[in-house]
Specification:
The chain contains 13 helices and 10 strands. The protein has about 325 residues and is α/β, with parallel strands linked by helices. α11 links the parallel β7 and β8. Bound molecules: S-adenosylmethionine (SAM). S-adenosylmethionine (SAM) binds next to α9 and β5. It comes from Phenylobacterium hankyongense.
């Protein structure tokens, strides 16, 4: 439905202020926490929060709390969202203020990426032990096997494959497998694990989920196991994972349900403290997948976490999979 003239004025008024326009331009790049916005804009938290409140009231940004942090993302959809997207697209990318913000955001991102890379390099040898601190590995693996179905699979792709646990679990049912990971240290350990179980035709590739561009619809089983909570743009990773799912193929995402263990952010590089079902459901639907099923695995111990396993499918050609 079109905006009324009054609504258009509200949207333009909310966006029509230099800092708020800069905030919209930043959120068009990725979802950001308030403190990250403050750093990039070099403005105090009360000021930035005031601007964000106005943008949220006008329906231009969406606020979502995550543990003790609050993130914001562009609403994007609807007439108001489209008006903002069109406005941003008309601004010269070389505009000095926006360019400076983009550079600062890039510095914040590099810092984050560096911290994560150091964390995985430091902990690669202990990763299997760390993974089992908060969840029951056996229960998760049984649920993953069930979610994958009986196979055999032509091509398995494991995005953020780490030490290769999903490859050794599901690889025996696959004709060919690919594990992609940013950390050489994790990949080195995965190489040993894959060799130990005698997986043939299993490639371990060093690369970024967002930069490697695997071929469209090329895998009938795609797995993203305990990776999304590290990422700045988990929705984009879901889109990327869905893009490579072949017609009739399946995507399995395993991650935590929303939780409040802030120390995982501080000490273990988690960015998001879990994902809510509606959020993940929306991302999967927007990525063109259907038949979403969710398995919930309660914590195995006192300070444990609930693991969610989302399974979704791409319809076969010429046939839309019923949701
Ligand atoms: C928590 S580990 C999970 C590993 C494995 N899936 C498992 O469950 O044991 C997350 C892995 O994602 C990798 N990773 C993080 N960001 C990535 C990215 N943008 N592209 C590829 N791998 C990434 C890290 O290097 C790390 O090995």
């Amino acid at each position: 439905m079109k905006l009324s003239a009054g609504q258009a004025v509200d949207v333009l008024r909310a966006a029509g202020e230099p800092t708020r326009l800069r905030i919209l331009a930043l959120l068009a790049r990725e979802e950001l926490a308030v403190l990250e916005l403050c750093r990039v804009l070099d403005q105090s938290q009360p000021r930035v929060s005031r601007h964000l409140k106005l943008l949220a009231e006008a329906g231009l940004v969406e606020r979502f709390p995550d543990g003790a942090w609050v993130f914001y993302r562009l609403t994007g959809a609807g007439q108001a969202g489209e008006l903002v997207t069109e406005t941003l697209a008309r601004i010269d990318p070389a505009d000095p203020a926006l360019l400076r913000d983009a550079e600062r955001l890039s510095a914040v991102r590099s810092e984050r990426a560096q911290d994560a890379a150091e964390y995985f390099a430091r902990n690669a040898a202990r990763w299997d032990e760390i993974r089992s601190l908060y969840v029951s590995d056996a229960a998760v693996e049984a649920a993953i096997l069930k979610a994958a179905g009986s196979g055999p699979f032509k091509r398995l792709v494991d995005l953020g494959s780490g030490t290769g646990r999903m490859l050794t679990l599901l690889g025996p049912q696959a004709e060919a497998a690919l594990g992609l990971d940013l950390s050489q240290q994790m990949l080195n350990i995965a190489r040993n694990h894959v060799a130990e179980v005698g997986l043939e035709r299993c490639e371990l590739r060093h690369g970024d989920i967002f930069g490697t561009r695997l071929p469209d619809e090329s895998a009938d089983l795609v797995v993203v196991h305990q990776v999304l909570h590290y990422l700045a743009d988990p929705a984009a990773a879901v889109r990327e994972a869905a893009r490579i799912v072949a017609p009739g193929g399946r995507l399995i995402i395993a991650d935590f349900a929303p939780h409040g263990l802030e120390f995982l952010r501080e000490q273990h590089q988690h960015r998001r403290l879990g994902f809510a079902e509606p959020e993940m459901g929306r991302w999967l639907a927007e990525a063109g997948l259907a038949k979403v099923r969710i398995t919930s695995l309660p914590p195995a111990r006192k300070q444990g976490l609930t693991v969610k396993i989302w399974t979704a499918e791409r319809g076969r050609e010429g046939q839309r999979t019923a949701a």
